[in-house]
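Q: Please design a sequence for this.
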């Protein structure tokens, strides 16, 4: 269940919210006038999430490149290298 706090809570209990974010590695959702406004998380959690996003983007690029014929799957490349070694071409 998400941890939801008000902007007043953030101002008055910053250290407590910071400690929660670091220990749980979960974001705290901040409301302003009863509506969602911010998501607060530790730097470590933010870096982990942005790292995952970057990895997913790279994987998507690789899949698209293979699908479009611009790159070959690793298994194909390794098979060809092994065959060239067997044939004495390498």
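A: Design:
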């Amino acid at each position: 269940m998400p941890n939801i706090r008000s902007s007043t809570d953030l101002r008055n209990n910053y250290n407590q919210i910071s400690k929660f974010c670091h220990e749980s590695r979960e974001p705290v959702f901040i409301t302003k006038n009863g509506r969602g406004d911010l998501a607060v998380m530790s730097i470590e959690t933010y870096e982990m999430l942005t790292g995952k996003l970057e990895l997913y983007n790279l994987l998507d690029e690789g899949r698209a490149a293979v699908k479009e014929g611009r790159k070959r799957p690793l298994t194909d490349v390794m098979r060809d290298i092994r065959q060239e070694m067997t044939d004495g071409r390498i």
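Q: Thanks. Anything notable?
A: The CA atoms of residues 28 and 75 lie 43 Å apart. The helical segments are 7-12, 14-24, 43-67, 74-86.
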